[in-house]
Specification:
It is a single chain. The chain is of the alpha/beta class. It has two domains: 1-75; 81-209, no CATH class. It has five helices and five strands, in the order H-H-E-H-E-H-E-H-E-E. A five-stranded mixed sheet has the order 2-1-5-3-4, covered by helices on one side. Helix 2 runs antiparallel to helix 5 (174-185). It is rod-shaped, with a radius of gyration of 39 Å. The protein starts with 5 loop residues before the first helix and ends with a strand.
């Protein structure tokens, strides 16, 4: 038993009740705050996980695209024969000169496919007059330049003067048809260009296969 007066007991009784009320209120506030902040923290955690998953997915997609590009670069260039053949339906054949760079991993094979597709083996029956490597350029520049072609990719060369508006590149010309046949049949990123050579016979189209860019 505590030896206190009634007034003191009443004072301390009231004081302890106040402390209990304040404590209970503080516990309630802390519990509410803990629950609310826990939910907020969980939401941010979910968003962070979602963002990380999104970043990971995007990185994986870019890595896959890069791998596909690397596979394309490491594989020989390909020509879809059916698309190539369809693009040349009804086009009047002309003589074909095919030249290819020797210092190239797939130039010979691409040149051979073009020769086979246009020539007798595929049934298109275009006369292949010349099929041989490019000759070295005395100036030291890429050999394709001496053949009036781009040093990269495939170039279709028709007779004409670059300074003039040559009729060789009219929409109905054989040179134009070959250009678009190659462009359409060589996949997503074909490198096909065109040029003119005033020394080329009027009834001939030159196709130059240089290394890929």
């Amino acid at each position: 038993m505590f030896d206190v007066s009634l007034e003191a007991a009443t004072f301390w009784y009231d004081s302890f009740n106040i402390i209990l009320f304040v404590g209970a209120f503080a516990v309630a506030i802390a519990t509410y705050g803990s629950i609310k902040m826990g939910a907020v923290k969980e939401r941010f955690s979910d968003e962070r996980i979602s963002a990380n998953e999104r970043v990971t997915a995007e990185a994986n997609a870019r890595a896959l695209e890069l791998q596909v590009s690397l596979n394309e670069l490491s594989s020989p260039r390909h020509i879809d024969f059916e698309i190539f053949k369809k693009s040349l339906e009804g086009v009047a054949p002309v003589k074909i000169e095919i030249r290819y760079a020797e210092a190239c991993s797939d130039c010979f094979w691409v040149a051979t496919w073009i020769s086979n597709f246009l020539g007798e083996r595929s049934g298109l029956g275009w006369p292949i007059s010349i099929f041989k490597p490019l000759e070295a350029n005395p100036s030291g520049l890429p050999p394709a330049i001496a053949a009036h072609a781009s040093p990269w990719g495939i170039t279709v060369v028709a007779r004409g003067d670059v300074k003039e508006n040559s009729i060789s590149w009219q929409d109905d010309s054989s040179a134009n048809a070959i250009f678009f046949a190659l462009l359409k049949s060589m996949g997503k990123r074909p490198t096909v260009s065109s040029n003119l050579d005033a020394t080329l016979p009027a009834d001939m189209v030159r196709i130059v296969v240089a290394p890929r860019p």
